[in-house]
Amino acid sequence: MSSQEHTVRLPLVSDGPLDPPREQALLREQCPVATAVLPSGDTAAYLTRYADVRALLADKRFARPTAEDDAARVAPPGGGGIAADGAPTVIPAKGEGHQRWRRLLSRYFTAKRVNLLRPGMAGTAHLLVDRMLARGSSADLKAAFGFPLPVYVICDLLGAPAEDRDRFSHWSDSFLNVSRYTREQTAAAHEEFTAYMAGLVSEKRRRPGEDLLSTLIAESAAEGEGMSDEQLVFTGMALLVAGHETTANMIAKMMAMLLSDRSRWERLLAEPSLVRTTADEALRFDANLGAFGARRYLDQDVEIDGRTLPAGTTVFCDMSSANRDATAFDEPELMDLARSPNPHLAFGAGPHSCLGQSLARTELQVSLETLLQRVPTLELAVPVGELEKLEGLSVGGLSALPVRW
After folding, report:
1. What pLDDT, on the 0 to 100 scale, is given for residue 47?
2. pTM
């Protein structure tokens, strides 16, 4: 099998909701640069090996496609939204303009700053568990805990009212889904979301608080080049979507991994010091990071594994596959709660890696600490094979996580 002759259809199919597609291992071994056919019918390059995925994600020359690029579309005609079409270019996708934007934001997401948020996160997590326990002896852990915790955290950070969380959920779902909504529906949701965030930015200009949006307005202006309202709106929308959708799904997936093999949960109960390494191992072990992986648009030729990909190629980097590459991880099919070091690619790599990774890690750790302490008898309420994956979302997840205690 050669990469020039092998074609796959994305998304790949797996046997179970927590299992990796069988085809990934074959591709890593025999065809690390394959051709992928997307639901739209467009084709792209598809990378599965750790070294190749990491190298391309870390290459500052390339970024995710924008609406202006002639990139491969994910969704069929008439479907999908920004996740399928590419993001608008309010903020430069790469280069110095993009790095300046990242520098403005990154200071608010350092491990030191995020650690200051930890007591508040823990308080919210305990409150959510109080409410869950008060309702009985079973629950959908995603709906009762995994979803609301990141929403409260990111809303508090941005200064947005958490009572609007159901609206945020709809908007981010339409933002990230590639098949559930028509283009007209995603356009309407995007217009509503933009208007909402524009109103929030306007309010922060009039009445600044101690939140991130207010601080961005003040500090970017103090540095001589204040962010425009359009840039602030885009930033707020991006942070709200990224700050709750991915983490909410990851909390549910992490708990499903731990409860699907009861020995993992029992080990954590016996060794709670493993919470930090467990959170990162869940990120590595996640077979469902996304239906397609991270996209990059090539505006110049690049050679990968001896194959030249020409300018104009769209590349899908499968981080889930890369994170199970035996050349990078010992016993990659084993979920090792004590694994360290753990150079997984769940947050990407290089100049486009996830800005909020310290925040996400802390939320995962706080979730584990709280549930271990408060609900040690937690177990799945259905067989693992009956868990259902979310369909069409560009970030992977489970539709629900039924548990009992």
Report:
1. 97
2. 0.93
In the block, which residue shows the tokens 């469902």? 288
In eight-state DSSP terms, residue 31 is -
Q: Which of 357, 352, 292 is nearest to 319 (CA)?
A: 292
Residue with tokens 């840039």: 231
Structure confidence by residue, pLDDT tens digits, 364-383: 999 999 999 999 999 999 99
Q: What tokens does 91 get?
A: 């903020």
Residues 235, 292: Cα–Cα separation, whole Å: 24
**C-alpha to C-alpha distance for 80 and 51, rounded to whole angstroms:** 31
Look at residues 26, 63, 65 and name the one whose alpha carbon lies nearest to residue 48: 26
Backbone angles phi, psi at 144, to 5 degrees: -85, -25
* Residue 384: Cβ within 10 Å count: 15
Please state whether the peptide bond connecting residue 148 to the residue before it is cis, i.e. omega within 30 degrees of 0. Answer: no
Contact status, residue 71 vs residue 301, Cβ threshold 8 Å: no
Give dist(CA 100, CA 30) in Å, integer.
40
Give the separation between CA 249 and CA 289, rounded to whole angstroms.
9
Distance in angstroms (rounded) separating the CA atoms of residues 210 and 204: 10
Distances (CA, A) of 170 to 151, 190, 192, 231: 13, 10, 11, 22
How does DSSP classify residue 73?
Answer: P
> Taking a C-beta distance cutoff of 8 angstroms, is the pair 357, 237 a contact?
no
Query: Two tokens at 88?
Result: 């608008």
Residue 1 confidence (pLDDT): 43
Q: Which residues of the chain have pLDDT under 50?
A: 1-4
pLDDT at position 107? 84
On whether the CB atoms of residues 388 and 249 are closer than 8 A, the answer is no
Contacts of 109 (CB under 8 A, 6+ apart): 355, 356, 357, 358, 359
The amino acid present at 184, given as its one-letter code, is E
Enumerate the β-bridge partners of residue 47.
33, 317
Average pLDDT, the chain: 90
The predicted pLDDT at position 301 comes to 97
- Vertex 290 angle, CA 346 and 55, to 5°: 45
Q: Output the pLDDT for position 108.
A: 86
